[in-house]
Amino acid sequence: MPAPLALTLGEPAGIGPDITFAAWRRRAELRLDPFYLLADPVFIGGRAKRIAPDLQIAVVEPAAAAEAFVHALPVVDIGVTVSAQPGRPDQSSAPAALAAIRRAVADVAAGNARAVVTNPIAKNVLYRSGFSEPGHTEYLAKLAMETSGVAARPVMMLWSPELAVVPVTIHLPLRDVVRTLTADLVVETGRIAAADLKARFGIARPRLAVAGLNPHAGEEGTLGDEDLTIVRPAVERLNAEGIDARGPLPADSLFHQAARASYDVALAMYHDQALIPIKTLAFEHAVNVTLGLPFVRTSPDHGTAFDIAGTGSANPGSLIAAIQLAARLAGNMQPRMTLRA
User: Fold this and answer.
1) For FRET with 293, which of 20, 49, 155, 188 sits at 20 to 30 Å CA-CA?
2) What is the pLDDT of residues 289-299, one digit of tens each?
């Protein structure tokens, strides 16, 4: 039997536990691959009593998760006591969230899990605890290096059946995008996107549509020269390497239905250029996929939703899509991590 998926707790005061319960309830209907939740079992039992009192929980080790999954939600103990209440993170939040992520990566490295699915975290809560990484993605890359010695250059892709997008620059103020954006960065991002689309998504020759930075892709330099001096040379280099890339293309006409049929992924130059179209088209079921890691990692494309945590009203659609995609990608390519000797 294939190894299960490792699902992290995320921010315990958020909706991670709630949508995990909802996803597990739909396991038979949707034929979900077995997964286990990395968490404090007592905390999970308390949250279940609050919003899903008939939910069965089985405290197991990963090897027993698939068998338990049929009749109960498998929970693997992370060894951190959680005291956070819905909507109210506390001093236990960051240690629990990070312990779950560390254990998930270690389980994949040991062959006890096929992929990592992460519930949403609250970065401001982590920062207050002394967390020094910019976010989830960078922390996963650090853990990959520590666990297996594999250096990773992670790239964020937002995926849905309607559209896949990769922002070349991510969490930057707009004023910093231009000085950060380089042809080398565009090329490196395009290489990683093309490689993972081929290796994990099974696309023999991925088609990349590369958005321009400026309105109308710069109008041949009249609306800024970055598309001529940065984006176009990057596209030419990608083509020279045998990667099917087109651009710079005007972003305002890149995301309608006919345009989307002409490419497999759109490379956007900054955060909102990528996320606005996919959240418009697929708000409830888009998935955050980290490319460039030596293992499969997916996540819901939404936050912790503190305002509805513990009410049982959170929509599990994006988590379910993340679980389904993780299983698909892990099936296409087995985890490449190996424990250090």
Assistant:
1) 20
2) 999 999 999 99
Is 40 found in the same domain as 3? Answer: yes
pLDDT confidence tier of residue 144, bands split at 50, 70 and 90: confident
Q: What is the CATH number of the domain that holds 189?
A: 3.40.718.10
Amino acid at 203: I
- Domain range for 5: 1-152+294-341
Domain count for the chain: 2
Do 1 and 145 fall into the same domain? yes
Same domain, 208 and 338: no
Mark whether 299 and 270 lie in a shared domain: no
User: Can you tell me which residue has the tokens 């109210």?
Assistant: 88
When pLDDT is averaged across residues 95-109 and rounded to a whole number, the result is 96
Q: Read off the pTM.
A: 0.91
Beta-bridged to residue 77, according to DSSP, are 39
Q: Please, what is the average pLDDT of the chain?
A: 93
- Tens digits of residue pLDDT in 2-49: 899 999 999 999 999 999 999 999 999 999 999 999 999 999 999 999
